[in-house]
Write a structure and sequence with these properties.
- The structure holds 2 protein chains of 2 kinds.
- By secondary structure, chain A is mainly alpha-helical.
- Chain A has a domain at 72-230.
- Chain A has helices at residues 13-29, 39-52, 73-90, 99-102, 117-136, 138-143, 149-166, 174-191, 198-214, 217-230.
- The longest helix of chain A is centred in the middle third of the chain and has 20 residues, at 117-136.
- The radius of gyration of chain A is 24 Å and the shape is elongated.
- Chain B is mostly helical.
- Chain B folds into 2 domains: 15-113, Orthogonal Bundle (Rna Polymerase Sigma Factor, Chain: A), CATH 1.10.1740; 116-190, Winged helix-like DNA-binding domain superfamily/Winged helix DNA-binding domain (Arc Repressor Mutant, subunit A, Orthogonal Bundle), CATH 1.10.10.
- Helices cover 72% and strands 0% of the residues of chain B.
- Chain B contains 9 helices and no strands.
- The radius of gyration of chain B is 20 Å and the shape is elongated.
- Classes of the chains: A mainly alpha, B mainly alpha.
- The interface between A and B is large, with 77 and 79 residues.
Chain lengths: 231, 190
Amino acid sequence: MTHDSSHHVTPDPMDELMDERLRELAQRHYNAPGEQLPLDAMWSAIEGEAFASPSATLRIVPANAQWFRRPPRWLAAAAGIILGVGLGRMLPHGSSGAAPQRVMSVAQVSRVDEVMPGQLQPTANEYLDRTAALLASLPSESRAGGADARFAGRANDLLLTTRLLLDSPAAQDPRFRTLLEDLELVLAQVVNIPPGQRDSGKAEMDLINQALEQHNVIPRLRTAAAALSAD
Amino acid sequence: MTRVALAIEPTSAVTEPELIARVVAGDRVAARSLYDAHAPRIYRLAVRLVGDDEVARELTQETFVRAFRQLPRFRGDSALGTWLHRIALSVGSDTRRRLKRRSEHETTLLDEHDVASTSVEADPDLKERLHAAIGALPEIYRTTFVMHDLEGFTHGEIAEVLGVAEGTCKSRLFAARAQLREALSVFMKE
């Protein structure tokens, strides 16, 4: 904090002492902001208004991609059925023994609204682990000059799963929903990195890495995964 | 289930002009980055000036909503932070006027904020008088005093935000401090 001299007139030492005392008191007692700043809550409101308004110049990235749109309810219901199957296929072969438990049958999931959050927990947990692994590998991908097609493919799979989870009862938990929305945005950015453009791709990934750090995405992912595991 | 060991390594910083260009192109992640860089200081200043967390929150939100909408017209003649603070002070001024019109009670809330929640280190009466004395300062003096003495802005920063010369800023601070000394001298000597 800088306090430069306030006037060209030589100040009275007693005045200076009193100014100092008043400044200390005022810093502590005059409309002092709390320790915790409501940054996330304010951002939600800003994002909702600045991005939703027709007059706003901002748009969701990537706005021109048809597949980026949130799936309609009927598709979400169908997707709920295949969610477990899809995630089961995404599992490494070494964990195939546990995969059948993650697959939900059509009989179990006739409508997505009827899926109990508990049934989605294993798939959500697996999803969080895989997303964390992908995002943790971003720095090395960035150093290598950008994402390759395989990396983008993994991100695309996870992006699809993110949207499915957003339209499932698992997103009823506000904190989990916020995390999913953040991940949707980040994964969409990863998917949208132009392949074969090493320089621009690297800049994109640096920006994504920066956002990940600023939003504490990885710690939040780990916390969410741990909370699901504990249930 | 095996947990993945996670570590995010520091990455090269994206410059502010790059972020601005990305926000103008519609990048929400970049918008959040700009927000994270500037919102804490703006929110803190808003709380100091309006004295109410909820109003400060609305003020900060309105500042960034306006800023994002106007960002395509931002020419970079001043630093982005300066530009944002100008918007914040403009929004704050509007907010205060609106609230004053609405009711005298709300004006009291803004100018003479509750002191009951503050620490016990200072005499409650002195704190109350301090509040009243700062609240009674002319708006230009109070803003200068709050920005410089409470939130650590330099005279150069304040002058740029308020669009005045640094000398003007120093004179205002001098006058603000003199008024406070006069208003509180009896209490400070006790």
